[in-house]
Amino acid sequence: MPTMIRPFAGLRPVAGRAADVAAPPYDVLNSAEARERAKGKPWSFLHISKPEIDLAADISAYDPAVYAKAAENLARMRKEGVLVQDDQPCYYVYQLQMGEHVQTGLVAAASVADYDTNRIRKHEFTRPDKEDDRVRQITALNAQTGPVLLAYRADAAIDDLLARVAQTTSEVDIVADDGIKHRLWVIRDAASINDITRRFDAMPALYIADGHHRSASASRIAATRRAENAHHNGEEAYNYFLTVMFPHTQMRIFDYNRVVKDLNGHSSADFLAAIGKSFTVEPSAEQARPTQRGEVGMYLDKQWYRLRIKPEHVPADPVARLDVSLLQNNLLQPLLNIQDPRRDVRIDFVGGIRGLGELEKRVNSGEMQVAFALFATPMQDLMAVADAGEVMPPKSTWFEPKLADGLVSHLLE
């Protein structure tokens, strides 16, 4: 009987090679950055996740030669014994540490069927071109190499089990270029594996935090292979996709802030007056980092302001009441005429990990005229949106720390 998650025989760096292999997620670096990061690192997983770095500098990242190069590089790393597959299905405990923040989760193969029926819940739209890219990558490699980041509602029994494993000696303990510590343990014990499988299968839902395109592409590949396989039984590797899941209480969402090029013809004084219809406006002598929901920091004319949405403008709908929605629907759209933040070239987005100083820099340089600092979306809000079958606005969440690519891959062989 298929279960929501199951163990798998992971493809991993051989002992002592994890630091040489581990790489940032494929979608956080552009090709030029990846090329620079991989210099002098022949075993970096970037040669698999960003294989255009080994081809002509002007090649399209979507050229068929790129996917062929990825497969060639993966085969080479296996042949050279840098990547080795475990000899039995395992679960893996994966711990991330960023400064004082530590989160401990589980690497598992998650059910495509449960994704298709929304038991593994999404909160974002996907783009067909990005899905196509992942389908081609996975097909060329016959492997899923970029894990999908999932959240589960914190469960004391599971959290305690993972914490106990994390008190033993890890098989991987590395610090990446960005200072993030990555640790990995392998669970081979059948009783523990069965207990974990059973406990997750009893959960009503899991939640995609990051990796919507990877999970959508896994679903497409499974549908294709299912149709082509006369002996399909549901147990094949393609029926599952690579995930790392953490308890929602340990996951860390940063703010995702906005900067806008102009005031849509308003003077600063008129703009501030217009904001006052939906928000209270209070000048701040220091950076106005929001401390609660419904609060926005605004930087204009080298002055910070603290904006607070008036209660009558906060609806009950789980999407419309998000802070990113309140800002969009009560300020960006009506006052600055930003109708579609996905496509409007006048707006840009700044991950909160860069700090509020980055917002000041973008405005003080003259590149942008106004900046907005948002309160980070709570995990409970993300799960409420997913439970309602709704979709988050663009650029609502920025998860840190990031998973590494290459520490565990899921072969579809």
Would you mind describing this structure in some detail?
With 413 residues, the chain is an alpha+beta fold. The protein folds into two domains: 5-252 and 400-411, no CATH class; 256-375, Conserved hypothetical protein from pyrococcus furiosus pfu- 392566-001, domain 2 (2-Layer Sandwich). 30% of the residues lie in helices and 24% in strands. The strands form five sheets. Strands 1, 4, 5, 6, 8, 9, 10, 11 and 12 form a nine-stranded mixed sheet that branches. A hairpin with a 2-residue loop joins strand 4 (91-98) and strand 5 (101-111). Helix 4 packs parallel to helix 6 (128-141) and helix 6 (128-141) crosses helix 9 (212-228). The chain is globular and about 70 Å long.
Topology summary:
Layout: E1 5-6, E2 11-13, H1 18-21, H2 31-37, H3 46-49, H4 64-79, E3 83-85, E4 91-98, E5 101-111, H5 112-116, E6 120-121, H6 128-141, E7 143-144, E8 148-152, H7 156-165, E9 172-175, E10 181-187, H8 190-201, E11 206-210, H9 212-228, E12 240-247, E13 253-254, E14 256-260, H10 268-275, E15 279-284, E16 295-300, E17 303-309, H11 323-332, E18 347-351, H12 356-364, E19 370-374, H13 379-387, E20 398-399, E21 410-411
Helix pairs in contact: 4-6, 6-9
